[in-house]
Write a structure and sequence with these properties.
- The chain has 84 residues and is mainly α.
- It has a domain at 26-62.
- It has three helices and two strands, in the order αααββ.
- Strands 1-2 form a two-stranded antiparallel sheet.
- Helix 2 runs antiparallel to helix 3 (44-61).
- It is elongated and about 70 Å long.
């Protein structure tokens, strides 16, 4: 007999802990939370699979994002005698 693992806040929290690259993206985390609970009837493993698909699609739509947050503007050192 196969037992289905139900969705829980603890399960979602474990997913976030296992994926530290999501830290700093509050909007994405809220979206992932909604996707997880929308698919709770499928059970935890399948709901997490859908989270992974959603996060990958989000990363493809937002290429300027990195694992530690938004890319910082590159600061180039000023050369002597030139004004910005």
């Amino acid at each position: 007999m196969i037992t289905r693992i139900d969705c829980s806040e603890a399960g979602f929290g474990e997913f976030l802990l296992a994926n530290p690259q999501l830290d700093g993206h509050a909007d994405l985390i809220w979206q992932l939370h909604a996707v997880y609970w929308r698919n709770k009837r499928l059970g935890h493993p399948k709901a997490v699979g859908l989270l992974i698909q959603y996060a990958r699609a989000w990363a493809a739509r937002n290429p300027g994002e990195t694992a530690i947050g938004r890319l910082q503007a590159r600061k180039t050192p000023m050369t002597q005698g030139r004004r910005p």
